[in-house]
Amino acid sequence: MNDTAAAVLVAVLVGGPAVMLTPFWLARRSSESHANTTAAAIRAQQGRQVAERPKELTR
Asked: What distance in Å separates the CA atoms of residue 41 and residue 21, rounded to the nearest whole number?
């Protein structure tokens, strides 16, 4: 086996699992980003609300 064939074999063995796992990594990153953005929007909205009773928003 020459050097080029060995390099290609290593690239396939390492790249195969990486390519298969990339969609899961991207989905997790996207969902975490969405969760953080949504949580920040909810906190900002609650910060603007005025409670009729002081403990109403702390439940």
From this structure: 31
